[in-house]
Amino acid sequence: MLTLCGSPISNYYNKVKLALLEKGVRFTEELVPIRSTSDAVLAASPLAKIPYIRTRQGALCESQAIMEYIEAAYPQPPLLPADAFAAAKVRELTIFIDLHLELVARDLYPQAFFGGTVSESTQASVRKQLEKNIAAFKRLAAFAPYVAGDTFTQADCAAFASLPLVGMATRAVYGEDLLAAAGVDCKPYIKLIGERPSAQQVVADRKTAQAQARA
Domain spanning 2-73: which superfamily? Predict the structure, then answer.
């Protein structure tokens, strides 16, 4: 059986978990702390990044590589279109969300979520990059009603896990949600995805993990 390793607090963990739940894949979960120095963790994920998975064939890290493995190993129900170009457009959106939105906004997280501070120069450079990237994302995203069109896909796994973080982080640091300010209103979309049983489980498990971390 497949084992998903990491923490339900991680958005990239939840991206993968959402895909597994949508596909009805049987899996177990193993709590692995961020930045672990364990040899066992480093053997599976050399940069100690989460999530990673363990399969009968071995371990696999990097969330998008895991997503591609899941799609190939468990093709039904599909989370990528059968058409090659349409599937590539879903991957394109996922890359935009992961690399050009969430990863850029991540520099704000120490101040937004963890009680730290971010320098004014970092705030300024992140804002400039995010405003540019959000405008580009807006040209690609359909929200019709799903992020890539009329079907739930891998891009929705990424969007549901990460777009709220971008909005919350920018609101906390800049006093405004840069997604909403650019005309990307995620609230109806997040509400729609949140009605899915898979998303409800992801959210419930994340809240439990957050509560345990605060205890």
Answer: Glutaredoxin (3.40.30.10)
DSSP reduced 3-state for 131? helix
> Per-residue pLDDT for 131 more than 90?
yes
Contact 23, 78 (CB under 8 A): no
- Reduce the DSSP state of residue 6 to 3 states and report it: strand
pTM over 0.90, yes/no: yes
pLDDT at 37: 85
DSSP, residue by residue, 25-93: --EEEEE--TT---HHHHHHSTT--S-EEEETTEEEESHHHHHHHHHHHS-SS-SS-SSHHHHHHHHHH
Q: Looking at the domain 84-214, which fold is it?
A: Glutathione S-transferase Yfyf (Class Pi); Chain A, domain 2 (1.20.1050)
Helix (H, G, I), strand (E, B) or coil at 210: helix
Residue 215 has pLDDT above 80, yes or no: no
Mean pLDDT of 12-37: 95
Cβ atoms 4, 56 nearer than 8 A: no
